[in-house]
Amino acid sequence: MKALLHRGIDYLQGKFPPNRIAVLLTPLVFVPVAGAASAWLATHFPGITFSSDVITGFAAAGALSALTGAYKWLDGWQADEASLNERFNAERIIEAEAKASPPK
Questions:
Q1: Is residue 11 part of a domain?
Q2: Mean pLDDT, to the nearest integer, of 76-99?
Q3: Is 35 exposed, middle or buried (0-12, 13-18, 19+ CB in 10 A)?
Q4: pTM, 2 dp
Q5: Closest alpha carbon to 56 in 30, 31, 36
Q6: Which one of 48, 53, 62, 99 is CB 3.0 to 4.6 Å from 34, fit for a cystine?
Q7: What is the pLDDT of residues 44-68, one digit of tens each?
């Protein structure tokens, strides 16, 4: 059962890597949930009453924070992918140079 689960996860990661999942779920799930949670917190915070305009501002700030977090995560993901690609290319160049020059 555990091997089957790992094969399923490997298959999904091949089809839907984490960066694609983040891009897909951020506008559909994370932004609305963050906006609703921050608006709910502003409405139900004990001892303070906010106007509807302020609550809307809290919802917008929560949604913006989710977008900002997703942007930073994707930016880091892309930087990591570029770094891995550069290392891979550097290794291939070193291997090609080693094959081209015979040992002395």
A1: no
A2: 87
A3: buried
A4: 0.62
A5: 36
A6: 62
A7: 888 888 888 988 988 999 899 889 9
